[in-house]
Design brief:
The complex is a heterodimer of chains A (191) and B (397). With 191 residues, chain A is of the alpha+beta class. Chain A has helices at residues 2-27, 70-74, 106-110, 136-142, 153-180, 182-188, and strands at 52-54, 80-84, 91-97, 116-118, 133-135. Among the domains of chain A are: 42-142, Alpha-Beta Plaits, CATH 3.30.70; 149-177. In chain A, the strands form two sheets. A three-stranded antiparallel beta sheet of chain A has the order 2-3-5. In chain A, strands 1-4 form a two-stranded antiparallel sheet. In chain A, a hairpin with a 6-residue loop joins strand 2 and strand 3 (91-97). Chain B has two domains: 1-72, no CATH class; 77-396, Orthogonal Bundle (Cytochrome-c3 Hydrogenase, chain B). In chain B, 47% of the residues lie in helices and 11% in strands. Chain B is built from 15 helices and eight strands. In chain B, strands 1-2-3 form a three-stranded antiparallel beta sheet. In chain B, helix 5 (122-150) runs antiparallel to helix 12. Classes of the chains: A alpha+beta (191), B mainly alpha (397).
Chain lengths: 191, 397
């Protein structure tokens, strides 16, 4: 009898302890983030896996993809479609069905040139299913910061190659000229 | 109409007093007494943690018989393994058990490594242990909150989620996701940890130890909670062994069997940790044991994060997505949050494995429910069900 009363009093005390703890939490500051008024620290999204995107090779909207189909073969969900272009190795089509993707990184890890990566689009919203069928080349072009004056990558590479050759020829000519005036030039240089 | 009976499509004889439902209900109620009620718990009942359905025969408030009905979340993971290359099946392993996916990652990757004879770098083994134990804590915290919520205490789950979100933040740094983690690769892990991971993990260990004291004061010592659990649903060792129960249920019944200690894998033999055992085989004992296991996991993480060596996180020529397994057969078991997780892998040397059998601990543990629930009150059956820590996707696979 006496023991039972003590037991019940102890039980009553445990209830008071619980009330005290919940009251303490009630008065402590809010722990949650009220989206969209507040968003998380972007540092937490560094490794977040959003939908895939192509890695830009330059500022003109060109990628590194060489249409080797390794990502297509590696993908367990069959969510990628890559078609090779008419000229060069660049893909003509790079379609990505986000509804099938399980974000497993098989494509990213199998890419020999590092042409694809996960974006950090954590707040992406799609109104329809079709909006999740993404065209990654169009996405890459839209992220370009400069307009390519040559029109295409191939043309620009050709010009760049010609420029490099010209610069090299010029440097060679200068070296030859230096070599001619070598002894005098080197003697005059400061030690 | 052609005589098709929409109410009773399988043509089971309707005897008076029985409950006309689907085939399971009809088969179950055929054995029912006339003066009892057959009740469906689930599959959409919140206290069944997903889509578990349990048929119970009730006499008043007491349960005479119980029968779990499975398969509402069957996703053919074992069949999927037969049409995917070994690499392509890794993401499935993050989805079998959404509360402790890293243990399934480990079981599958470990089986492939054992069959192919792949050695794992030391740093990768440490990262595996740290991530697996962090994930185990997250799993137990989720169970803690859900279990207390089953018993009517809605507040504690929100406190448990605060800690769980911290673990998710830590694991997101290396895995990139918060729920369906696919972190392990054949011959290592996918990503190396950074300073932020180490800092957050070191901060988390003393933080959670403080919080466990709060858990004890708020829930464990609570008089209502104790009266609802003490002596409810005893499962003795013999019963557990007959049904193949593993994990916290078996340990609470008094057998200190833990795969990490008894069939060592990884580098668990390097760490000092004790296997909690007991104190009692009722629901309250299982509750206390799981909280003790959180402490064990914290001990392991603390030692691992202090002594983590430098080096590569993956072997040089790690298998790629087109990797073919050598012919053979193997079994690999790890200790998951709910018990022994096993993968039996058979390969005939082809592109895809010939057969994979996933041994889910929740399936065996659920079988105990029918025995333990006999003769208990319905409210106590919910307590027993919660103390089993079921994850239905894992039970159904």
């Amino acid at each position: 009898m006496f023991k039972a009363i003590i037991d019940n009093l102890k039980g009553l005390y445990s209830l008071l302890v619980g009330l005290f703890i919940t009251g303490d939490f009630f008065l402590s500051p809010q722990k949650t983030t009220h989206y969209p008024r507040k968003v998380d620290d972007p540092e937490t999204l560094k490794s977040y896996r959003g939908p895939l995107e192509l890695v830009p090779a330059d500022n003109y909207g060109n990628g590194k993809c060489i249409s080797c189909q390794m990502c297509v073969r590696a993908c367990p969900g069959h969510c990628l479609t890559v078609t090779k272009g008419d000229k060069g190795k660049e893909p003509k089509v790079y379609l990505y069905d986000f509804t099938l993707c399980c974000l497993c990184a098989a494509c990213v890890e199998s890419c020999p040139t590092g042409a694809i990566r996960f974006s950090h689009k954590v707040y992406m919203v799609a109104p329809t299913r079709e909006a999740l069928h993404l065209d990654l080349i169009a996405d890459l072009k839209s992220r370009a910061t400069k307009i390519d004056p040559m029109g295409t990558k191939a043309a620009r590479l050709k010009v760049a190659k010609a420029e490099a050759e010209a610069a090299k020829a010029k440097a060679d000519a200068e070296d030859a000229a230096k070599a001619k005036a070598g002894p005098a030039g080197s003697a005059g240089a400061p030690a | 109409m052609s005589g098709f009976n929409f109410i009773n499509p399988f043509g089971v004889r309707e005897d008076p007093g029985s409950f006309v439902g689907d085939r399971y209900t009809d088969n179950f109620s055929r054995k029912a007494r006339r003066d009892t009620i057959v009740l469906n718990l689930g599959p959409q009942h919140p206290s069944t943690h997903g889509v578990l359905r349990i048929l119970v025969e009730m006499e008043g408030e007491y349960i005479l018989r119980a029968e779990p009905v499975l398969g509402y979340l069957h996703r053919m993971h074992e069949k999927m393994a037969e049409v995917k290359t070994p690499w392509q099946f890794i993401p499935n392993m993050g989805r079998v058990d959404y509360l402790h996916p890293i243990s399934w990652n480990w079981a599958y990757v470990g089986a492939v490594e054992r069959l192919a004879g792949i050695e794992v770098p030391e740093r990768a083994e440490y990262l595996r242990i740290i991530s697996c134990e962090l994930n185990r804590i997250a799993s137990h915290l989720m169970w803690w909150g859900a279990f207390v919520m089953d018993l009517g205490g809605v507040t504690p789950i929100l406190y448990a989620f605060e800690e769980r979100e911290k673990i998710n933040d830590i694991l997101q740094i290396v895995t990139g996701s918060r729920l369906t983690l696919s972190y392990f690769r054949f011959g290592g892990v996918s990503t190396d940890i950074d300073d932020r991971f180490e800092r957050l993990t070191r901060e988390f260990i003393p933080y959670l130890r403080e919080r466990l004291k709060m858990y004890k004061a708020l829930v464990t010592d609570n008089i209502i909670f104790r009266r609802r659990l003490e002596g409810i649903g005893p499962m003795d060792l013999d019963l557990c062994q007959r049904y193949g129960a593993t994990g916290p249920i078996l340990r609470a019944a008094g057998l200190a069997y833990d795969t990490r200690r008894d069939i060592p894998y990884g580098l668990y033999d390097r760490f000092e940790f004790d296997i909690p055992c007991g104190p009692s085989n009722d629901s309250y004992g299982r509750y206390l044991l799981r909280l003790a296991e959180v402490g064990t996991s914290l001990d392991i993480i603390e030692q691992a994060i202090e002594s983590i060596p430098d080096g590569p996180i993956k072997i040089a020529k790690a298998p790629k997505a087109n990797y073919k397994l050598p012919a053979g057969e193997t079994f690999f078991a790890v200790e998951g949050g709910r018990g022994q997780v096993g993968v039996h892998l058979v390969s005939d040397g082809g592109q895809c494995p010939y057969r994979i059998k996933l041994r889910a601990p929740g399936y065996s543990n659920l079988s105990l429910f029918a025995e333990a629930a006999k003769g208990t009150l319905l409210a106590d059956a919910i307590a027993i069900l919660g103390s089993l820590d079921l994850v239905i996707p894992e039970v159904d696979r």
